[in-house]
Amino acid sequence: MKKVLETDRLLLRELTVEDADNFYKLNENPNVIRYTGDSPFEDIQEAYTFLQNYKDYEVNGYGRWAVIDRSSHEFLGWCGLKYDRSKDETDIGFRFFEEHWNNGLATESAAACLKYGFEKLNLKKIIGRAMSDNIASIMVLQKLGLTFDKEFDFDGHKGFIYTIQKNR
Which residue of 84, 131, 133, 156 has the fewest CB atoms within a 10 Å radius of its CB? Predict the structure, then answer.
């Protein structure tokens, strides 16, 4: 398990196959995946296989990271950066168990990820994608300093792309 980042309340580390149970439970809640375009995993084994085959750290040097409560060591969700080779762009993403919504965890973890992306990875631009109905995620992106760029088709729904540049 490789620790990547720390904030006042959170520890961000690489995802491992040991996270399969939490990963499965996270995507099992329809409210959590409502605006993601993702389907729930069929079972814990499918989540395990997904994590086993998750190669973003090796291929790109970064990826989505498990978000752990520093005091309780509880798995709260995930946050991180994802490189899309076909578009040559990196996006910020986050997903948390519903009982942890509205506690500033997405903002806190994503702010640390943006800083890491700009300062450690020397990225020039990071984007955020959200379905237009996903007001909570849009508010997080705006709080982080991302600004509206354009609309796009998000799996048949209206989506928005927000961007932030290094040294903005």
Answer: 156
